[in-house]
Design brief:
heterodimer; A: about 120 residues; alpha+beta; OB fold (Dihydrolipoamide Acetyltransferase, E2P); six-stranded antiparallel beta sheet; three-stranded antiparallel beta sheet; 9 strands; about 20% helix; B: about 375 residues; Gyrase A, domain 2; Alpha-Beta Plaits; Elongation Factor Tu (Ef-tu), domain 3; six-stranded mixed beta sheet; 9 helices
């Protein structure tokens, strides 16, 4: 069973078997507005927690996505190239960005649970 | 619901309506303005396919009068701009530029011969300085600022049909003409003009009637509100300059590819600020020029992105860039060395270390669909 965590930068990571699937949250996509392009990391890239690994381009502006964990990128969501709108439609599902083979599971301890993230977002609104 | 307005921001007469309709309000030129309602892509498409209503009440409206009449006002105004204003017949509008003594652009503006006076619309972000400039520079004229007026833009291929339903005379107005109209009982000053590349109107209405007027227009099935976000993507596709981004005091009308705004008579008579520099550039050319760029992919090149040649040498800089929803490609405009400015030239935009290939193209990116003739 996958377990999902959230960052203060509005990324989610769903972890199963040491591999995390990363995307941006429903709150983030709502704030960004219509997504027209997503720049993804390269498969095989080694990334550190906090690195700017992806860029989401909305009609208005470019926003960086920071990796919530360290590890190696093992897969990227190729569908976003032709259908960046998936990020708006299914931010926490089909609109995922990349999968990362975690190098340090303990980094997940710094992230929030769904309930904690929901409270965090409520504090922003 | 929308965000609260910080206390230091000004509001337009439609502020409450924007919030009621769930607009996302952002600070722009000192005003709380709606950047979007449902989404920029939808609001952009609304203007390209039906009719979009924009609140542009933050823009500066003013009237210029001269005791000897409108022709004397136009003559005085020509001391500040390179446009041929004396040629304007009653009801005609001209797009022109305030220039400085170096030929740089202080603002772009619309000037209308409104019969007995000139009606002027300037950018929100420049209006304080513009009005000072007009008060000081328009010899013998009275400049009356009209902050009591709201300004609404109704833009799109169905704009004329909608307005004609409420006021039949609206349909026959040609592009870049203006007149007083009674639209469903509202006394307005309507200009057939806009900032989207589409047919449409910019409608000046008393601020205290603006909300009722907007609500009346929104009752028409073709009309929906669009925000500043869509306004920007629409004007970029139309190849229209945004002051402060694409033109400013460091760019001249010739560099900005706005030569067409310099009246033929003004080219010989001169008599506008910076005329010597600007007219010399007309014959000698300039080292750089504003061009359009169509990128090969969807990834946008935003303002301040370097434009580079094959070898990676910087040859220019993007001043406005984004994704063009109608052209379905990343598009940009920017200044580029004259040697690379010809349409068809292959260049690249350097975005976060990647060279995004692009082609210099003739603007607009999306064809203008102005109403030129009588219906």
């Amino acid at each position: 069973m996958a377990k999902i965590y959230f960052s203060e930068e509005h990324e989610w990571i769903s972890v199963e078997g040491g591999v995390g699937t990363v995307g941006i949250t429903e709150f983030a996509q709502e704030q960004l507005g219509d997504v027209v392009f997503v720049e993804l990391p390269e498969v095989g890239a080694t990334i550190d927690k906090g690195d700017d690994v992806a860029v989401v381009e909305s009609v208005k502006a470019a926003s960086e996505v920071y990796s919530p964990v360290s590890g190696e990128v093992v897969e990227i969501n190729e569908e976003l190239a032709d259908a960046p709108g998936l990020v708006n439609q299914h931010a926490e599902g089909d609109g995922w960005f990349y999968k990362v083979d975690l190098s340090d599971d303990s980094e997940l301890d710094d992230l929030m649970t769904r309930a904690e993230y929901d409270a965090f977002v409520e504090g922003l609104e | 619901m929308g965000d609260p307005t910080p206390e230091n921001l000004l509001t337009t007469p439609l502020d409450a309506l924007h919030r009621e309709l769930g607009a996302r309000m952002v600070p722009f030129a000192g005003y709380a303005m709606p950047v979007q309602y449902s989404g920029i892509l939808h609001e952009h498409a609304q203007a390209r396919t039906h009719a979009a209503l924009f609140d542009v009440s933050h823009m500066g409206q003013a009237e210029v009068r001269h005791p000897d009449g409108v022709e004397a006002a136009a003559r005085a105004f020509e001391a500040l701009v390179p446009g041929d204003l004396l040629a304007l017949k009653p009801g005609q509008i001209r797009y022109t530029l305030f220039t400085n003594d170096q030929g740089g652009i202080l603002d772009d503006l619309m000037v209308t011969n409104a019969g007995d006076h000139l009606y002027v619309v300037v950018n929100a972000g420049c209006k304080v300085e513009d009005f000072k400039h007009m008060h000081a520079g328009l010899a013998g004229c009275t400049v009356t600022e009209r902050p009591d007026l709201a300004l609404l833009a109704l833009q799109g291929p169905e704009a004329a049909k909608v307005l004609a339903r409420l006021c039949p005379e609206a349909a026959t107005m040609a592009f870049m003409t203006a007149r007083a109209l009674d639209v469903a009982g509202f006394e307005v000053w309507a200009s057939r003009s806009g900032y989207t590349g589409e047919d449409g109107y910019e409608i000046s209405v008393p601020g205290d009637r603006a909300e009722a007027f907007a609500r009346r227009l929104l009752e028409e099935p073709e009309v929906e509100f669009s925000g500043l976000g869509a306004r920007d993507s629409l004007r970029l596709e139309a190849g229209l300059c945004l002051y402060g981004s694409d033109i400013d005091t460091a760019t001249t009308p010739v560099e900005a590819d706005l030569k067409w705004t310099i009246g033929k008579r003004r080219r010989t008579e001169a008599g506008f600020p910076g005329a010597e520099i600007v007219l010399n550039q007309l014959t000698e050319g300039t080292a750089r020029r504003r061009v359009g760029l169509r990128l090969d992919g969807r990834q946008p090149a935003r303002a301040h992105t370097d434009i580079v040649d094959d070898a990676g040498n910087k040859i220019g800089e993007v001043t406005s860039g984004g994704f063009g929803p109608t052209v379905e490609a990343a598009i940009a405009m920017g200044y580029i060395d004259a040697a690379h400015a010809a349409p068809g030239t292959r260049v690249a935009c350097s975005v976060r270390g990647k060279a995004l290939t692009a082609e210099v193209v003739t603007m607009p990116f999306a064809p203008h669909r102005y109403f030129k003739g009588q219906a």
